[in-house]
Design goal:
alpha+beta; Immunoglobulin-like; 3 domains; 11-stranded antiparallel β-sheet; 5 helices; globular
Length: about 475
């Protein structure tokens, strides 16, 4: 089950949730742990939602770990979302990222420190840029996930698979929270009474938004939970300045639940397995690896595409698009992939311009969409996608290697005039973790001394050679005058 809470003025309830940067207009934190398909009854967080809408906002993950996504929207005039003078992404400053950390710490309940390895998520200085029209969690478009039509206004983003559960306000506002477990929020209007074994969390999100001209801070909390028990009890406690909404989603039908004015609502939910919409295609990742050695690699993905029994394959060509999220330690060269496309390679679209020369510690995350065409068949067809990418140089450290991460792929398919359809992958896909060599700080003194010695010897040899050549030249001139 699930619910949505809208706090028109969160300042009336707490002072530990603030937006500390005046340029920020909105912060979104999205937590998705939809590891398995929800086959039981769910209460969805919108009016008369559909199963497709729910699965789009909390899509089924193709990895074993939950995903945390963050977007920060700034004013159009803010320098934090503008490109540098040579049209590449400008990294977040330490002070700017620290201000964002203060807000997100309260929401997820974990301390965040810029550029600290003790932080549970990557430093926010590495936040990349995506067009503002792309929304969480997939940063795609329903019309075409590989094309951005209005790339002007942008927002900062960070996305990472995590191994911890958010606490803070994400936990305090949950309908499954027991009052004695967390006294942070006495304002949870909806409490779910059910055995913990019958409840499976799908995802949560919090949106903080500045109200126009009023200075008030609005908070929107959203939660979706799958229920496996035959009956549940919902207790509704109305709160001032808080709007609550619940809709019952069972299969493909939905029904709004009216919250009584007496302050309580009880719902008995039958444990009936809904009829799932049969997808037109299924996909399985057979192989995904980083090929080649050194700093110049190739991301190779092999997928098996299967049309379902009810799907009539009538199109001569279909298109497959893969969205890949690279961390700050890797990048794709737009000039290289454009040259490859001229000779029959895949169509590659970068959501932001990339500086090829920046080191890892001065770069950002980035999204890349790779599209290929293939001929569908009645049986399965294997599609191979190769994407050249490069690893960035790391700043020196005491460790031998640093790890650069490529997240699991997000896959779309389209045939003829059909709309793009996101494919749920049949198997888990682990993030690629690539070890990047790091300069050794322990060798700094030796290298400095050796460099100084070689430079000194070389300079001395040059000086001696100049003196000898000058002496010979002077001797030759003297003989001629005689």
């Amino acid at each position: 089950m699930s619910h949505t809470l809208v706090f028109d003025n969160i300042d009336q309830y707490t002072n530990n949730v603030q937006i500390y940067d005046d340029d920020i207009t909105e912060i979104n934190v999205h937590y998705n742990q939809h590891i398995a398909t929800a086959t039981d009854t769910a209460i969805a967080a919108s009016t008369n939602p559909t199963r497709a809408q729910l699965n789009r906002y909390y899509p089924q993950l193709s990895t074993e770990s939950p995903q945390l996504s963050i977007t920060v929207d700034y004013k159009d005039t803010s320098s934090k979302i503008h490109m540098e003078h040579y049209s590449t992404v400008k990294q977040m400053s330490l002070n700017d990222s620290a201000l964002v950390c203060r807000t997100i710490e309260a929401l997820i309940g974990h301390p965040l420190l810029p550029l600290s390895r003790q932080s549970p998520i990557a430093s926010l200085v590495f936040m990349g840029l995506v067009p503002r029209e792309l929304s969480l969690p997939l940063f795609d478009q329903t019309s075409d996930p590989s094309i951005i039509k209005t790339p002007g206004a942008k927002q900062r983003f960070l996305q990472q698979h995590i191994d911890f559960a958010p606490t803070g306000w994400m936990s305090a506002l949950s309908s499954t929270r027991q009052p004695q477990q967390d006294n942070r929020s006495p304002i949870t209007p909806i409490i779910l009474a059910s055995s913990s074994a019958a409840v499976q969390s799908i995802g949560k999100s919090i949106k903080l938004r500045r109200q126009d001209n009023s200075g008030r801070l609005q908070m929107v909390f959203n939660e979706v939970i799958s229920i496996g028990s035959q009956s549940v009890k919902l207790t509704y406690n109305p709160q001032p300045l808080v709007t609550s909404s619940i809709s019952l989603l069972q299969g493909e039908s939905s029904q709004d639940i009216k919250l009584g004015s007496d302050g309580s609502a009880t719902a008995a939910v039958a444990n009936v397995a809904p009829k799932q919409a049969v997808p037109s295609w299924t996909a399985k990742v057979n192989l995904r690896e980083a090929r080649k050695q050194g700093f110049h690699r190739e991301l190779f993905t092999q997928l098996s595409i299967h049309p379902t029994l009810d799907t009539k394959v009538s199109s001569a060509h279909c298109f497959l698009t893969i969205l890949d999220n690279f961390d700050q330690g890797a990048f794709v060269d737009q000039y290289e992939v454009s040259e490859i496309q001229r000779f029959g390679g895949p169509n590659v679209h970068l959501y932001q311009l990339i500086d090829l020369e920046k080191p890892s510690y001065n770069s950002t995350q980035n999204y890349v969409a790779t599209s290929v065409s293939f001929t569908p068949q009645a049986g399965h067809v294997e599609v191979n996608v190769s994407l050249p990418f490069h690893l960035r140089y790391q700043n020196p450290n005491t460790s031998n290697y640093r790890v650069s991460v490529v997240s699991p792929p997000i896959v779309y398919i389209k045939c003829q005039s059909d709309e793009w359809q996101r494919l749920d992958l049949a198997t888990y896909v682990e993030s690629l973790r690539i070890e990047v060599p790091v300069g050794q700080l322990s060798l700094q003194k030796f290298i400095s001394d050796a460099t100084l010695f070689v430079t000194g010897v070389g300079s001395l040899v040059v000086v001696i050679a100049i003196i000898i050549m000058s002496s010979k030249s002077a001797s030759s001139t003297s003989k001629k005058h005689k």
